[in-house]
What does this fold into?
Amino acid sequence: AFERARQDGARRVPFTELLKPAYLRAGIGVWVASFMGLLLVYGLNTWLPKLMNDAGYPVPTAVTQLLVLNIGGVVGLVLGGFVADRRGIKGTTMAWFAVSVLMLGCLSIKMESDLLLNVVVFFTGVFVFSAMVLVYAYVTHFYPASVRSTALGSASGIGRIGSIVGPSITGALVASGVGHPWGFYFFAAVAVLGFLAVATLPRGGGSEPAEAVPAAPAAPAG
It folds into this structure.
């Protein structure tokens, strides 16, 4: 996504361009979705083993789940791109956040089967991690080349704030002794907000307005 923005964005524009009516609705949705997406990614990557241990899983099992989560994330990147190419970016991103809500809600329940736990954590990684990447893909699809780099930069910057907030809030829940199940309730609520943010995004875009081409002068009558 960033490479495409660098290649296409020959003319750089200021951030204020994104506040114009043509882009404001998409901008707000992208910023919120990016914030929520990176909050989930960094929150889970930082605290998943501790949350699992608080749920009563042995330490080796809890640590293994972080590996399973990230393997799912790698698979999700491929699957998300495949589905988005065929079903559309907005609908796919909404579906990814929706399934993330379901998977995170399931993790709030203590599971007796290691196999079931691995499956749920794997699919949590599949959908949570690639949902964020799909938001970036939407940016490259919606915004014209002249503002694409600025839009991606703003989405990434606001998302990074989420990457700080997520681990901080989850850490506070863990310190309060309610990391499990409330940590996963918190993550599920964040995924709901991500879903709602994507739902507000307009469809279409991705092209520059054509420049007016002067008409050729008429040939003199001979």
In short: The longest helix spans residues 21-54.
